[in-house]
Amino acid sequence: GENVEQHPSTLSVQEGDSAVIKCTYSDSASNYFPWYKQELGKGPQLIIDIRSNVGEKKDQRIAVTLNKTAKHFSLHITETQPEDSAVYFCAASLKAGGTSYGKLTFGQGTILTVHP
Amino acid sequence: SQTIHQWPATLVQPVGSPLSLECTVEGTSNPNLYWYRQAAGRGLQLLFYSVGIGQISSEVPQNLSASRPQDRQFILSSKKLLLSDSGFYLCAWNGGFQETQYFGPGTRLLVL
Fold first, then answer.
1. Nearest-angstrom CA–CA distance, A49 and B47
2. Can you tell me the distance from the alpha carbon of A42 to that of A38, in angstroms, rounded to the nearest whole number?
3. Cα–Cα distance between A113 and B15 in angstroms, integer?
4. Around Cβ B12, how many Cβ atoms within 10 Å?
5. Whose CB has fewer CB within 10 Å in chain B, the N or C terminal residue?
6. Residue B10: enclosing H or E segment and its boundaries?
């Protein structure tokens, strides 16, 4: 089955700096890669996702890059703000169909702390 | 728009007691539904998923069971809770052959 490794487990930055979180996956057939942000005591919220036919996607201060050959993808947050502090999860899945039904395999999470 | 609800929000139960957590989705039909457990605020472990009424797939052997009595209702149960069942339980859904999963607010369970 799919295995997703996420690094670093904790990340501390100063407000205004950039933050980068990296994930690697094992199944070359995976083609959908979402990123979730989870605030304390709440459910994860989707912040950005990318599909395997795209190498990069950007949404304001957040961007995701995908290297299919190396089987890794990264989340980039620029101009970080204290409200970006949260736990971030990457995930990977096969396109829903057959028996996969959009099942996601998650990384272990990164605790991001942005210091004012 | 679609909304996902979970209740209760928090629950404290003694070891050996039964459990019933409920998840409902509004604004969609025939969703795929998922139960996850999250221990110590890190890592989501998929417990069960369902692609239709009465159809349940289990990902890991455990003390829990799931049921889907209605199209948009997903229930997580246990006959006798263990200390190790403590955690944050999350329900999620996606539509048909969509990949993106949307999570509910979660239920925090503490077994004493």
1. 23
2. 6
3. 36
4. 10
5. N
6. strand B10-13
pLDDT at A99 over 70: no
Contact assessment for residue B36 and residue B48, using Cβ atoms and an 8 Å cutoff: no
Q: Cα–Cα distance between A71 and A19 in angstroms, integer? A: 20
Q: B109 touching A, CB under 8 A?
A: no
Length of chain B: 112
Q: How far away is chain B from the Cα of A16, in angstroms, using its nearest Cα?
A: 26
Average pLDDT, integer, range B45-50? 92
Q: What's the CA gap between B56 and B45, in Å, rounded?
A: 16
Cis ω for the linkage preceding B8 (within 30 of 0): yes
Q: Which of A23, A31, A37, A38 to mutate to test the interface with B (most CBs of B within 10 A)?
A: A38
Helix/strand/coil for B83: helix
